[in-house]
Amino acid sequence: MRKRLVHFSIGGINVSLLSDCRSFVDEYLSLYAPYRRESGQQGAIVVEIRAGHHFPWRRGPYLIRGEDDNGIQVRRRREVLPHLEWIINWQIIQQREEYVQLHAAALEIGRKALILPGDPGCGKSTLTAGLLARRWSYLCDEFALIDRATLAVHPFPRALCMKERSFPVVDGLGLPLRRKIPYRKPVKGRVAFLNPREIRSDIEGRPSPVRWVVFPRYVAGATPRLDQLTRSQAAYELARQCFNFRVHHQHTLAKLTDVVRQADCYQLTAGDLGPTCDLVESRLL
């Protein structure tokens, strides 16, 4: 089968996707069609998806790989798109050292950025969806890119990946969650994607300095609470959530210290989404 090559520019990240499986290219296009480009760009992240009949000696029927790695083999079709997103992230970690790269969501309002760092399952994506349904603009989900030179968070408007436990909450907001294909991640289980551009057309944010650093932690049934953190506590926690901290770690730590020096920093105990968003907006804005 003839391979298909499609190019994208997602925020400041150029991606070229190569595959002999048209359906996977179409799925990716359904999320990122506005970012499609006619030609590739120098320095683009190149990722390939191969169907299993090309490598019967491998364990899985699909191989997803970047240019300089062996890639990931997955057995099920529903695992391909979530793993494709991660392979792109991994290539960014390897190639784009001009950014401090955090495991965090980020939003923007009035040219001021809010970053939401945290471990998997802390509620970053759900809180992001709740704020997007209000008046916030979107920078990223799970992968925040902070420019080392300017300390601004740059847009990387990938689709939000929502866990199954968040489906009813997102449905309650009336947001267009894509569940036709039951995607799965090894640790997260069943997931679905939310295209932020389907919430509203003007949702994409601009590079913005960090004004707030909020570490969310979802606790079922909890009364939402926002507690101030010292900047030293916040810098330590940011370092723990930094994907490329070991690359020039002293320089990276200095940059994280600069980030928190200009920000208000909080620990958020998140409960029901509506009251949690109300609390965040009342305290930050």
Computed structural class: alpha+beta
The amount of beta strand, in percent, is 25-35%
Helix content: 25-40%
Distance between the termini: 54 Å
Mean pLDDT, nearest integer? Answer: 92
Overall, the morphology is globular
Give me the count of strands: 18
Task: Summarize the biggest pleated sheet.
Answer: 9 strands, mixed
The arrangement of helices and strands along the chain is EEHEEEEHEEEHEEEEHEEEEHHEH
Total domains: 2
Low-confidence stretches: none
**Within the CATH hierarchy, at the fold level, what is the topology of the largest domain?**
Rossmann fold
CATH class of the largest domain: Alpha Beta
Explained architecture:
With 285 residues, the chain is α+β, with helices and mostly antiparallel strands. The chain has two domains: 4-95, no CATH class; 99-284, Rossmann fold (3-Layer(aba) Sandwich). Helix content is 27%, strand content 35%. It has helices at residues 22-32, 80-95, 124-132, 167-172, 231-240, 249-261, 273-284; strands at 4-10, 13-19, 36-37, 45-51, 62-66, 72-74, 99-102, 104-109, 112-117, 137-140, 144-147, 152-154, 160-163, 177-185, 189-194, 208-218, 225-228, 264-270. The strands form three sheets. Strands 7, 8, 9, 10, 11, 12, 16, 17 and 18 form a nine-stranded mixed sheet that branches. Helix 5 (231-240) crosses helix 6 (249-261). The radius of gyration is 19 Å and the shape is globular.
